[in-house]
Amino acid sequence: KSTLYVVATPIGNLRDISLRALEVLAGVDVIAAEHIQITQRLLAFHAIHTKMITLHQHNERTASEKIIAMLAEQKSVALVTDAGTPGISDPGGLLINQVRERGYQVTPIPGANAAICALSASGIVTPHFLFYGFLPAKSGERKRKLESLKSLSSCTLIFYEAPHRLLECLADMTAVFGACRQITIARELTKLFETFYTSNLDGVVSWLQSDENQQKGEFVLLLSPVEPENDAEISEQVKHTLYILMESLP
Ligand code: SAM
To answer: Measuring from atom 2 of ligand 1, which residue has the nearest CA?
Structure first.
């Protein structure tokens, strides 16, 4: 009781939710959802009938007060967003801060996240990545942000982007990182039209332009690192293997 659960929900496939998340959603007094209609679909699919209130970007402050009042009455609340993990390019941070400040328990219930889902199946071999989330909507500002990330050349850079800004965003990435930079587009993850496409920036733009259907849906963009950090290590390993081979060859 008096706990705020931060519950990750699916990013497409309604079955991508943990048993623990379902138990929590069914057991709490109230679910705070970004859009009641969207979460209702998930709850109906799993036959959950918990009462809901809204908490979104524009009412987070007032909704937080309501939730804190509920916690004060020994109630438990689950926070969910439309998809994925709350607080990751989604509301939740302000509420969680206030709940912690008042001394109530906050418990995460982990699950889907579009960035990690995309990275996990991208095939990019990288020990390091930077999750940026959404870039600014305006091109000038976006280019400045991209410039500021240029020095992180040994990291995979992960972005979220809306479909209507996809091509202009890729044009700015090309201007900043050059047309040869490798990029993976992860589209409609866990859904019917799930697609992964990897090429250089030039190649990805041509592919998108050749098929407008590929410009629809939800996207994660992953820019590959330029210099793998462990280059030196790999070449040492290669040298060692060559040495052993030479030793054992007749
Ligand atoms: N909190 C979410 C998470 O944990 O991933 C992210 C929410 S953010 C408002 C929505 C963005 O996440 C979309 O615009 C898209 O960039 C990305 N996204 C969410 N679901 C996706 C999916 N199924 N496939 C690809 N990208 C997705």
So the answer is: 84
